[in-house]
Automatic annotation (TrEMBL), chain A:
Localization terms from the record: Endoplasmic reticulum; Golgi apparatus, cis-Golgi network
Family: Belongs to the TRAPP small subunits family. BET5 subfamily.
CDD domains assigned to the protein according to its UniProt record, in alphabetical order: TRAPPC1_MUM2 (cd14855)
A Gene Ontology BP annotation from the UniProt entry: endoplasmic reticulum to Golgi vesicle-mediated transport
Gene responsible for this protein: BET5
Gene3D superfamilies in the record: 3.30.450.70
Main location: endoplasmic reticulum
Keyword annotations: Endoplasmic reticulum, ER-Golgi transport, Golgi apparatus, Transport
Name listed for the protein in its UniProt record: Trafficking protein particle complex subunit
Organism annotation: Mortierella hygrophila
Keyword Protein transport on entry: no
UniProtKB/TrEMBL annotation, chain B:
Annotated region described as Disordered, given as residue ranges: 157-181
Biological process (GO), any one: endoplasmic reticulum to Golgi vesicle-mediated transport
Keyword Endoplasmic reticulum in annotation: yes
Pfam families, sorted: Sybindin (PF04099)
A GO-annotated cellular component: TRAPP complex
Source organism superkingdom: Eukaryota
Name of the protein: Trafficking protein particle complex subunit
Length: 184, 181
């Protein structure tokens, strides 16, 4: 089961977000558009009105975390863990994944400092290769080689919506749905 | 191969750390404290950013050269075990560490649970256990439990509230032996 995916640039900016099997409570809270394909970070603000179905165990209840805040926390976690691993281990960028009781976070960082993060259920084997493929086959092809998408990143002012050019979003969606562990 | 064991108290302070082999780079004691604090914070955040509700904190961190396994007790103390990615029977090792911790630290009336652990008995038994799993059978080291089975059994009988540990004992002894040689 694959839950969601983030891409961060070097400046701690979440430039892409996509969810597939997010817990239903979180989905209603975050995705006001309903359709996962159309979901984008700007929908995060509308969480307030639909949180009535959340249970006591929902970690977001009471915090009312927006997607933007959540992105920052995710970035903070992977950044800290990456530094911790770098300090403890002898190799560079050795951080692959971490697992909790309910999910597993997979991490891939490119040489340019782009960070790919994907959450799956805890039993999935490493998805780092899949993230690498998303980078080399989809990101490079559809974003790096797309002058319009590039302009929005290098400008300093990153716009997540324009960056997630429809082609890229569809490509990622198709790729992730084709993974064997997508629905199991 | 077990690389290190860290124990973090419920406030995020490092109360015990020990390296058992050369797999990791050496850090200063200050850096270990920072590391423990970082892990403590990250552990708290990872349960908040879960895509599925009700998640625990980080349980296993995977890197290309080692894995960090975390076991948190109900009282908030965290045991971190840094081991080889191929290390088997992690759960058993963590349980064993907790057992040794309970026996030689919690039961020590002079030990404050929030303070650094300075107990020779604890050191010795932990080292013995780690050696039995690491298979470092030098001429003088014996696998854990093989020589001290009688003593452990006796101590277990005096604590009838932990019956689950008793059936696992022969198991530990045999796996220790298997790995040891």
């Amino acid at each position: 089961m694959i839950y969601n995916m983030y891409i961060f640039d070097r400046h701690c900016q979440c430039i892409y977000y996509h969810d597939w099997h997010r817990g239903h409570t979180a989905k209603t809270a975050f995705d006001t558009h309903g359709d996962p394909l159309a979901s984008h970070p700007s929908g995060g603000g509308g969480g307030g009105s639909t949180t009535t179905t959340t249970t006591m165990t929902d970690p977001r209840q009471g915090m009312n975390m927006s997607l933007e805040e959540e992105g920052k926390l995710v970035y903070g976690v992977v950044y800290s863990l990456r530094n911790l691993v770098k300090k403890l281990g002898k190799s560079q960028d050795g951080f692959i994944a971490y697992r909790t009781s309910h999910y597993k976070l997979h991490y891939y960082e490119t040489l340019t400092g782009l960070k790919f993060v994907i959450n799956s259920d805890p039993n999935v084997e490493s998805l780092q290769q899949a993230l690498r493929q998303i980078y080399t086959q989809i990101y490079v092809e559809l974003v790096v080689k797309n002058p319009l998408a590039c302009a929005t990143i290098t400008n300093g002012q990153v716009n997540p919506e324009t960056m997630g050019a429809e082609g890229f979003r569809n490509g990622v969606d198709r790729f992730v749905r084709s993974l064997t562990m997508f629905d199991t | 191969m077990i690389f290190s064991i860290y124990i973090i108290n419920k406030a995020g302070g490092l109360v015990y750390n020990k390296d058992y082999s050369e797999g990791l780079s050496k850090l200063t004691s200050n850096e270990y404290l920072v590391l423990a604090g970082t892990f403590h914070g990250v552990h708290a955040i990872t349960s908040k950013i879960s895509p599925a509700p009700g998640s625990s904190g980080i349980e296993m961190l995977e890197t290309d050269t080692f894995r960090i396994h975390c076991f948190q007790t109900l009282t908030g103390t965290k045991f971190l075990l840094v081991a080889d990615p191929q290390q088997p029977s992690i759960d058993m090792i963590l349980k064993k560490i907790y057992e040794i911790y309970s026996d030689y630290t919690v039961k020590n009336p002079f030990q404050n649970p929030e303070m650094p652990i300075r107990s020779e008995q604890f050191d010795v038994h932990l080292l013995k256990m780690v050696k039995s799993f690491n298979g470092l059978v030098a001429n003088n080291s014996i696998p854990y439990n093989v020589g001290s089975n009688a003593g452990v059994n006796a101590s277990l009988q005096s604590q009838p509230h932990v019956p689950s540990l008793q059936p696992s004992l022969p198991n530990i002894a045999s796996s220790g032996q298997g790995l040891g040689f």
